[in-house]
Amino acid sequence: MWRVLRSSVTLPPVPPIGEVLRRYPDAGEPLACEPLNKGLLNHGYRVSTTRGSYFLKHHLDKHHLDDSSGDHATIVRQHRATQQLHSLGVPVAPPLVDTEGDTVSVIGGQRYALHRWVDGLHRDGTQLTTAQSRRLGTLLGTVHTGLAQVMEADQPSPVRGRSPDPAETFALIDDLLKAARRTGPRDAFDELAVHRLVERRALLERHAHRRPPTPGVSARGWVHGDFHPLNLLYRDADPVAIVDWDRLGVQPRAEEAVRAAAIFFVRPDGRLALEKVRAYARAYRRSAGAGAAELAAAVHRVWWERLNDFWILRWRYRLHDRRADPQFPAVSALAVWWTREYEAVGEAFTE
Questions:
Q1: How much is the average pLDDT of 82-95?
Q2: 3-116 CATH fold
Q3: Span 25-59, pLDDT tens digits
Q4: Pairing state of beta strands 43-49 and 30-36?
Q5: 58, 185, 216, 323: which has the fewest C-beta neighbours closer than 10 Å?
Q6: What does CATH list as the number for 125-162+197-350?
Q7: Going by C-beta distance under 8 Å and a sequence separation of 6 or more, which residues neighbour residue 250?
Q8: Rounded to a whole number, what is the largest CA-CA distance in the chain?
Q9: CA nearest 276: which of 202, 345, 184?
């Protein structure tokens, strides 16, 4: 009899693990299924069997979030990309192929994929040395060049991105302020939210003229789409698996490099560890063949994006989802610090 490991925390529903594993006879019989609580958009489970350990991913339909990453064809494309990257030596964990030659099991209208379990730990920028930061930049550059190679025959027409409109952001700020102020009883998070919203509105009023233009298509390419510490596993000092390819898509590649650095290397007080950013960015430019001008434009666009972004507050006050709340202090402080240290940040990415 196999076991479902539970805790007092609200967890996703029990998957049909027996039916899934019947499609992978070499995986063995199920012994235990443990829900994982790291993912924000999909459900994940560690499955123990008579043959070893596996990661089972439940790909959720996210159309209510204007997100097509749960679409069947999109999942298959993600799987094909990781299989091909694996053949190039990129550290990924591609899905297993079932007896029908498929990588997606559709059961009861739900989509599941089985992967081999990869032992490893997540590391943020505070846990990386300068040399490891340099290796991280090289790895992301390798991902981008590898994707350019394996996705060459799969090129959808890219959609030009539109930089956030400050007029729309001002309306959002007013809406979020009302929500934060009417929350009762208000806690320390609500107070910080109100402070940051008022502060950000003043910054936007001062810098509205710096809104970047629509980017050109030439700097676009296939990117992972969500490259951050929770999607990279380390074993000792070595990256062993890049996971969660749900956001695979065509975007300005250098913007992914800047976004990743802003997540890996942000400190709790909102500052970036610029010495590590510098090592990371130099390695990325060499590995991806990206020029300083490309990175400079990306820095400006991501800075503007951060100045206008309130996704954590939208999750809390509109969706009543507080899972991202712990990220808010550092993320909200970063936008302020980055505005003040704009030149220094740009130099770290381009010199």
A1: 97
A2: Phosphorylase Kinase; domain 1 (3.30.200)
A3: 999 999 999 998 765 567 899 999 999 999 999 99
A4: antiparallel
A5: 185
A6: 3.90.1200.10
A7: 155, 156, 158, 220, 221, 222, 223
A8: 64
A9: 345
